[in-house]
Design goal:
The chain is built from six helices and seven strands. The protein is an alpha/beta fold. Strands 3-2-1-4-5-7-6 form a seven-stranded mixed beta sheet. Strand 4, helix 5 and strand 5 form a beta-alpha-beta unit. It is globular and about 40 Å long.
């Protein structure tokens, strides 16, 4: 599915970073080691690399990651990429300063497992930045999966990201304008959390 989507002309989710990511970058330490999961065509990785961070973008789509490398090159920066399914990807332990998860919608058992590994993979003091659609998004029909179980709530994330201190967390209605597949009013959950 994702190779097919990313084979479309242009960047299907745009080339600008996710708004929430962009709003949180000033909270990150300089030269952070950052992992962007389900990174697709690289818009968030490239933005973070332009700020001087060392970034690895992981995605199951080699097509998406090739476009990510082209986007990085056209912006005069370098990013690392790795083709991998999240069920198989090794997050390591206390390896990352920041892990970014933007609209990463997975079946609940896999999502819970990935979130557990995110917590283990962060260094002490490390940060997770996450935005996802909530089940209320089904009323909006402006992006995201067609089933509520693959969406997230703040309450659910507090449980799944056990061991993370939520410095910021909210559910909100906002305009999401990110290419042709995320366009219009939407209902999301946003988290900036830190591993103590």
């Amino acid at each position: 599915m994702w190779d097919e989507r990313y084979s479309e002309e242009g960047y299907v989710y745009g080339t600008e970073p996710n708004d929430f990511i962009a709003s949180q970058c000033d909270k990150l330490d300089p030269n952070s080691k950052i992992l962007c999961i389900a990174e697709g065509e690289g818009r968030n990785s490239v933005h973070l690399a332009k700020l001087g961070h060392s970034v690895l973008g992981v995605d199951s789509s080699s097509v998406g990651l090739e476009k990510a490398k082209k986007l990085a090159n056209s912006n005069g920066v370098s990013i690392e990429t790795q083709v991998a399914e999240l069920k198989d990807f090794d997050f390591g332990e206390e390896k990352w300063d920041v892990i970014v998860s933007i609209f990463v919608h997975l079946p609940p058992p896999l999502r819970k497992n990935v979130h557990e590994r995110v917590v283990k993979g962060l260094k002490k003091g490390g940060v997770i930045i996450l935005e996802a659609y909530t089940p209320k998004q089904l009323e909006y029909k402006t992006g995201g999966p067609p089933v509520a179980e693959m969406m997230m709530t703040l309450e659910g994330l507090v449980s799944e990201l056990h061991g993370i201190d939520f410095e910021f967390g909210r559910e909100l209605e906002r305009d999401v304008i990110e290419g042709k597949y995320h366009t219009g009013k939407a209902y999301t959950v946003q988290v900036f959390g830190r591993k103590p």
